[in-house]
Design goal:
Elements lengths: L1 H10 L1 H31 L6 E6 L4 E11 L13 E6 L3 H4 L3 E5 L3 E5 L5 E5 L4 E11 L2 E5 L1 H49 L6 H29 L3 E6 L5 E5 L3 E5 L6 H17 L2 E2 L4 E2 L2 H32 L4 H14 L3 H24 L14 H26 L2 H9 L4 H30 L2 H4 L28 H10 L4 H41 L1
Helix pairs in contact: 2-15, 4-5, 7-10, 7-12, 8-10, 9-10, 10-12, 11-12, 12-15, 14-15
Length: 543
């Protein structure tokens, strides 16, 4: 028996089974985690059913059930049955001062599903649950009651939404562009003043631009005033207890009766919520709305990091493997590269702040943007410095992956190229580099995945809670490398751990987490596709 067990041990069958079991366990845990994220993320977009709970103490609660859990009991068991409590989202934060309440199931006397209740999505203060008393146009009543009021409000809402978009376009784009141009004129005049130039054709030309821009600004202000005063519709809402809330339709994003939804209506509501999540800006301290600025910033930062890290890593790997004389110094450099890959990301972030922002950015401000000082332009966090910091963090991965690929390229291929008269550079450029491209892309895949998920270095090099402007817009020079930006990883951290309203923020955390995972998977799949295509081309050319 002992000899048989010894043979099994020597053959390694036990280790094979243990490896398979570990792999299966890892896959099960990963699938379970992804399933939990998907279910919770999709649940945040699915319309919940509004219920009225009549409690034994005589009070009533209107809301959606969000969770159910066992009530902790730290006393002796004594065969007592488990008691449960449910979490109700009652909304109406501006009236109740809280969104959620926990209710013991034992305290519920009656639970009913009303047919005439509405859920109103607002620009501020979250969702409102209740009834419609009347709809007004100015001081004129145009509808009364929930049924008639809901129809009228839904008919008026598309026009109100269009006007809101026009107002937002004027405020953010047109007026924003004028303010940007006025600021540039001011800075140019100050720059000339610092040089001692206070008069002349150039100064007069700049000053002549101000009245034109100011006139255009006043015209847009008048247009804004007309659009705002034209929005006279408002709705009078009532809570379950009869407390009234007058809400202008311009502050309303959506209104519906989720209890009257059919299955197609629920699916349409789900798809609309997902679409708004992708394309809208955040609201309510990032706990509601969309994440488009964070998506934009994440993709742009990853692309810029890739453009910076990949050439640097490939050149370093080629020098170490193809050109440098192998010896103690090269070995030390390789050890340093491997150690650089193991440095904590926050340390790299601190280096990025000290070197890129304070030293390089501060020097750029002193030389090229002295007219803006003491307000820094490049001497503060921005997407350029964040991308450079992440490139520094991920370049060792590209170096190691490229070196491994170079080591796998047969020496005979290089010798054959040199034998037919090619130079060292031609051999490297036309023979070795195409053969090692799959390894370069492997390193790039790993680098992109890490850069998309990192948070610590970005927090101190350019990421903010809410960016007022995107790094790319229609204003010269179009790509604004000095601007701060939003990032999905930081968005998850901010909403999940910095929000004062944890329960309200939880759906946004799951939805953003799922989006970040999907983005990383898509980036990796695109890089893997390119890598496999290159491998096929190399195989075909070799044949």
């Amino acid at each position: 028996m002992f000899d048989k067990g010894k043979k099994v041990w020597k053959r390694g069958d036990l280790f094979i089974w243990l490896t398979g079991a570990g792999l299966a366990l890892s896959l099960i845990m990963t699938a379970a985690l992804l399933m939990a994220i998907v279910v919770n993320a999709m649940g945040s977009f699915w319309p919940g059913e509004l219920k009225i709970l009549d409690l034994k103490d005589g009070s009533r609660v209107l809301g959606i059930q969000m969770a159910r859990e066992v009530i902790p009991d730290f006393g002796p068991a004594n065969g007592k049955p488990e008691l449960y409590r449910i979490q109700i989202k009652k909304a109406n934060r501006d009236i109740y001062n809280s969104d959620f309440v926990w209710i013991d199931e034992e305290s519920i006397k009656i639970s009913q599903t009303p047919k005439d209740v509405v859920a109103v999505t607002r620009r501020e203060w979250g969702v409102f649950f209740g009834y419609i008393k009347e709809v007004l146009d100015g001081d004129q009543v145009i509808a009364k009651g929930t049924v008639e009021g809901l129809k009228v409000a839904r008919n008026l809402l598309p026009g109100v939404t269009k006007k809101n978009k026009d107002i937002e376009k004027i405020e953010k784009k047109e007026i924003g562009a004028i303010n940007y141009k006025l600021e540039r004129v001011r800075l140019k005049l100050r720059k000339l003043n610092l040089k001692g130039v206070t008069q002349g054709a150039e100064v007069e030309a700049l000053k002549s631009e101000v009245p034109i821009l100011q006139s255009h600004y006043d015209m847009l202000e008048n247009k804004l005033h007309q659009l705002r005063t034209a929005q006279t519709a408002k709705i009078v809402l009532q809570t379950l207890e009869g407390r009234e809330k007058t809400l202008p339709l311009s502050q309303m994003l959506d209104i519906n009766n989720p209890n009257a939804f059919s299955l197609p209506d629920k699916i349409a509501y789900l798809l609309k919520g997902i679409n708004n999540f992708f394309w809208d800006d955040p609201r309510e301290a990032n706990t509601e709305g969309g994440v488009f600025p964070a998506i934009y910033g994440t993709i742009l930062m990853v692309l810029m990091m890739s453009l910076l890290a990949t050439p640097l890593g490939v050149l370093a790997a080629f020098y170490l493997r193809e050109y440098a004389k192998q010896g103690t110094l090269v070995s030390i450099v390789r050890i340093a590269v491997n150690n650089l890959a193991g440095i904590p990301s926050i340390v790299i972030g601190v280096f990025g702040v000290g070197f890129f922002i304070y030293f390089i950015g501060g020097s750029i401000d002193q030389i090229f943007f002295s007219e803006s000082l003491p307000t820094p332009t490049f001497g503060t966090g921005g997407i350029l410095w964040a991308s450079l910091t992440m490139a520094l963090l991920t370049v060792p991965v590209v170096i190691v992956s490229t070196e491994e690929g170079l080591a796998a390229v047969p020496k005979g291929i290089r010798e054959a190229s040199l034998a037919v008269g090619a130079t060292k550079f031609e051999t490297t450029w036309r023979v070795v580099l195409p053969a090692v491209m799959p390894s370069v892309l492997t390193g790039l895949i790993l680098a992109m995945a890490r850069a998309a998920g990192e948070v610590a270095p970005l927090m101190i090099t350019g990421v903010v809670k809410l960016a007022p402007s995107l790094p790319i817009d229609g204003l010269w020079p179009f790509l604004h490398l000095e601007r701060k930006f939003m990032h999905l990883g930081f968005h998850i951290y901010d909403v999940g751990f910095q929000s004062p309203n944890v329960d309200a923020a939880r759906p946004m955390v799951f939805a953003t987490t799922l989006l970040l995972l999907l983005m990383i998977i898509l980036l990796n799949m695109a890089a893997i596709y390119l890598r496999n295509r290159l491998r096929k081309q190399l195989t075909a050319s070799a044949v």
